[in-house]
């Protein structure tokens, strides 16, 4: 089964009003296991809406969302939440780490919420920090980390529960260009090492070119870049 399959997804805002915004007008997308796809979209094209629907944070007006072969359409909220916690990782432009907790703790907490033991969660957190090259920063709080280090911790947190699918929205968009390239390379390496599927939104065509496939969201539809 594909890790993610979107079929005939439509979504409009203000559907009942004269200022209706038809953001998605028939989205079909299949992500095979291990596939890393770049999503390129001008601002306002509906990129966030698409990522939120794919990650079960929002529901489409019509169409089907399948994750790991399971049709999530019309499933109860608690089932969708459980699937999202276990199988989907999110990364945003800003790290959204908890400021009162260390890097290590920020990666442990979502695992505890997912039922993992403290010992196993810490082991996994240390392993992930090692993979992105910031083990020496394990006991620092986010404020003591550079922007690039903060994003690396956010990557580890997103992968903490070993999701099948990673959804990233401009994951290095708030970093300066040189840092962005390095941190993006670390993300791709982590994704490749883990073998998960990823849909990564970016404006940066050079970064997009490093992925397996590039698609553009245009006038509510996906077209090859
Ligand atoms: P309707 O039920 O009329 O179709 P929606 O449920 O689609 O309306 O809209 C949700 C709410 O989000 C609206 O009341 C609207 O005021 C608000 N909203 C409008 N524009 C935006 C925007 N660009 N971003 C976020 N929220 C918005
Ligand atoms: P992107 O992430 O590509 O910038 P979004 O998915 O956030 O785009 O939004 C796509 C379009 O839908 C924009 O025109 C935005 O203003 C509109 N929109 C987003 N959320 C709402 C909402 N809740 N209500 C009404 N319009 C919205």
TrEMBL record:
Lineage of the species this protein comes from: Bacteria, Pseudomonadati, Pseudomonadota, Alphaproteobacteria, Rhodobacterales
One Pfam assignment: ABC_tran
Q: Name one GO molecular function term.
A: ATP binding
**Alphabetically ordered keywords of this record:** ATP-binding, Lipoprotein, Nucleotide-binding, Transport
**Entry similarity comment:** Belongs to the ABC transporter superfamily.
Q: Which organism is it from?
A: Sulfitobacter pacificus
Listed Gene3D superfamilies: P-loop containing nucleotide triphosphate hydrolases
Domain ABC transporter, residue spans = 4-225
Alphabetical list of InterPro entries matching this protein: AAA+_ATPase, ABC_transporter-like_ATP-bd, ABC_transporter-like_CS, ABC_transpr_LolD-like, MacB-like_ATP-bd, P-loop_NTPase
Protein name listed in UniProt:
Lipoprotein-releasing system ATP-binding protein LolD
């Amino acid at each position: 089964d594909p890790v993610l399959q979107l079929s005939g997804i439509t979504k409009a805002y203000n559907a009942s009003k004269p200022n209706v915004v038809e953001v998605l007008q028939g989205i079909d997308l299949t992500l095979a296991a291990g596939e890393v796809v770049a999503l390129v979209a001008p601002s306002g094209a509906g990129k966030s809406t698409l990522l939120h629907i794919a990650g079960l944070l929002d529901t489409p007006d019509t169409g089907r969302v399948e994750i790991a072969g399971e049709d999530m359409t019309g499933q109860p909220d608690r089932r969708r939440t459980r699937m999202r916690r276990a199988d989907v990782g999110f990364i945003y432009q800003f790290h959204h780490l908890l400021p009162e907790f260390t890097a290590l703790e920020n990666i442990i907490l979502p695992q505890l919420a997912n039922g993992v033991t403290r010992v196993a969660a810490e082991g996994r957190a240390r392993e992930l920090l090692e993979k992105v090259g910031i083990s020496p920063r394990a006991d620092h709080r986010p404020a003591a980390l550079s922007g690039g280090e903060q994003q690396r911790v956010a990557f580890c947190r997103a992968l903490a529960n070993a999701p099948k699918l990673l959804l990233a929205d401009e994951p290095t968009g708030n970093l300066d260009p040189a840092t962005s390239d390095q941190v993006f390379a670390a993300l791709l390496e982590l994704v490749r090492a883990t073998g998960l599927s990823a849909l990564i939104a970016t404006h940066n065509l050079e970064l997009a070119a490093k992925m397996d496939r590039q698609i553009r969201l245009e006038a509510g539809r996906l077209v090859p870049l």
